[in-house]
Protein backbone atom coordinates (compact mmCIF):
# COMPACT_ATOMS: atom_id res chain seq x y z
CA UNK A 1 0.00 0.00 0.00
CA UNK A 2 1.31 3.55 -0.62
CA UNK A 3 3.37 4.80 2.32
CA UNK A 4 5.38 7.78 3.51
CA UNK A 5 9.02 7.46 4.63
CA UNK A 6 9.02 8.42 8.33
CA UNK A 7 12.66 7.63 9.18
CA UNK A 8 15.85 6.26 7.68
CA UNK A 9 17.91 4.51 10.34
CA UNK A 10 21.10 3.81 8.37
CA UNK A 11 23.54 5.68 6.13
CA UNK A 12 25.40 4.73 2.96
CA UNK A 13 28.44 2.66 3.95
CA UNK A 14 26.92 1.25 7.15
CA UNK A 15 27.46 -2.46 7.77
CA UNK A 16 24.18 -4.02 8.89
CA UNK A 17 23.00 -7.41 10.12
CA UNK A 18 19.92 -9.32 9.04
CA UNK A 19 16.96 -8.13 11.11
CA UNK A 20 18.10 -4.50 11.31
CA UNK A 21 15.24 -1.99 10.95
CA UNK A 22 16.70 0.18 8.18
CA UNK A 23 13.71 2.51 7.75
CA UNK A 24 10.22 3.24 9.03
CA UNK A 25 7.26 3.61 6.67
CA UNK A 26 3.87 5.06 7.65
CA UNK A 27 0.66 3.88 6.02
CA UNK A 28 -2.85 4.52 7.33
CA UNK A 29 -1.38 6.03 10.53
CA UNK A 30 0.54 2.82 11.28
CA UNK A 31 4.33 2.93 11.49
CA UNK A 32 5.96 -0.14 9.94
CA UNK A 33 9.66 -0.93 10.34
CA UNK A 34 11.38 -2.00 7.15
CA UNK A 35 13.67 -4.88 8.18
CA UNK A 36 16.65 -5.97 6.10
CA UNK A 37 16.60 -9.74 5.46
CA UNK A 38 20.38 -10.11 4.92
CA UNK A 39 23.75 -9.07 6.33
CA UNK A 40 25.53 -6.51 4.16
CA UNK A 41 26.61 -2.94 3.53
CA UNK A 42 24.25 -0.11 2.54
CA UNK A 43 25.32 0.86 -1.00
CA UNK A 44 22.65 3.47 -1.77
CA UNK A 45 19.48 5.02 -0.40
CA UNK A 46 16.88 5.95 -3.02
CA UNK A 47 14.43 7.87 -0.80
CA UNK A 48 14.41 10.68 1.77
CA UNK A 49 12.30 11.26 4.87
CA UNK A 50 8.91 12.59 3.78
CA UNK A 51 8.92 10.89 0.37
CA UNK A 52 5.83 8.95 -0.67
CA UNK A 53 6.52 5.47 -2.01
CA UNK A 54 4.37 2.93 -3.82
CA UNK A 55 4.45 -0.84 -3.34
CA UNK A 56 7.54 -2.34 -4.94
CA UNK A 57 9.49 0.95 -4.91
CA UNK A 58 13.26 0.81 -4.46
CA UNK A 59 14.11 2.08 -0.97
CA UNK A 60 17.79 1.15 -0.68
CA UNK A 61 20.42 -1.23 -1.97
CA UNK A 62 22.27 -3.54 0.43
CA UNK A 63 25.06 -5.79 -0.86
Widest sheet, order of strands:
4-3-1-6
Number of helices: 0
Tally of extended strands?
Answer: 7
User: What is the H/E string?
Assistant: EEEEEEE
Proportion in β-strands: over 45%
Question: How would you describe the overall organization of this protein?
Answer:
The chain is mostly beta strands. Helix content is 0%, strand content 51%. It is built from no helices and seven strands. Strands 4-3-1-6 form a four-stranded antiparallel beta sheet, with no helix packed on it. Strands 2-5-7 form a three-stranded antiparallel beta sheet, with no helix packed on it. The radius of gyration is 11 Å and the shape is globular.
Features:
63 residues; four-stranded antiparallel beta sheet; three-stranded antiparallel beta sheet; globular; mainly beta; single chain
Explain the layout of strands and helices.
Blueprint: E1 3-8, E2 15-16, E3 21-27, E4 30-35, E5 40-45, E6 52-53, E7 60-62
Antiparallel strand pairs: 1-3, 1-6, 2-5, 3-4, 5-7
Short synopsis of the structure:
With about 60 residues, the protein is mostly beta strands.
Amino acid sequence: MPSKVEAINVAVGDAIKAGTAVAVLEAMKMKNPLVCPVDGTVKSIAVAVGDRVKPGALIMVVE
